[in-house]
């Protein structure tokens, strides 16, 4: 239960009270709660504060205490890496910002790594490129490649299987929609499926060893859109609120194989006729092309 208390304190930067812990983890008995808090205090995971007569527990950052005893150069390097967040920073950029000699910087990086204050993570964008970030951070998807990479290798077979299963699910939905009463328009509307339903179907299949998000499934569905096998639209429940917009997908049965242009975002771009080298709509700022290339 100690890790749940730590997670609760981490989610609340201003700290949590005993009442908050009791509310979020009701299964903890008073004696158990007191024992866990005392253990976390003794191990240095949390700090105790008094605010308006109430005891507040705040998560303690061990790296802050560890870096206090370091020399100025280590503090500077630590601060630069901390500022980079979970996307990390390349050693060349650290050297540029710190103005330290390569030999001295390498020595400092090794010292911080040995103290488990920072870690080096390989980036999928370059096999020989390492970025540095704080030891307790989870690397950003842009660094690890997300669910589509394993040991920095792109999982082609895994993506192909997901592609096939997502398409199979949409085909089944389209087939079921044909029996819908109300004519072709009603059947077409019924065949649209939210990406969350496709995500649930894939999750229930259990074919993925990693936890996939709805955004991951939408990335797979988008490849089907670019291949001309699937159509995508937005729900019209409340288009005035961007948060309420949901992507809907339906399988299509083209009469002819899609030409090469259709497989590119340009082939399905809603503003293609306005695209040119001048103006706000241009290839250099195209969000569809950027998403497709990623």
UniProtKB/TrEMBL annotation:
GO biological process, one term: transcription by RNA polymerase III
Keywords, in A-Z order: DNA-directed RNA polymerase, Nucleus, Transcription
The name this protein goes by in its record: DNA-directed RNA polymerase III subunit RPC6
InterPro entries, A to Z: RNA_pol_Rpc34, RNA_pol_Rpc34-like, WH-like_DNA-bd_sf, WH_DNA-bd_sf
The keyword rRNA processing belongs to this UniProt entry's keyword annotation: no
Domain of life: Eukaryota
Function: DNA-dependent RNA polymerase catalyzes the transcription of DNA into RNA using the four ribonucleoside triphosphates as substrates. Specific peripheric component of RNA polymerase III which synthesizes small RNAs, such as 5S rRNA and tRNAs.
Family recorded in the similarity comment: Belongs to the eukaryotic RPC34/RPC39 RNA polymerase subunit family.
Pfam families: RNA_pol_Rpc34
A single GO cellular-component term on record: nucleoplasm
SUPFAM superfamilies, sorted: Winged helix' DNA-binding domain
Keyword Lyase attached: no
Subcellular location: Nucleus
Chief localisation class: nucleus
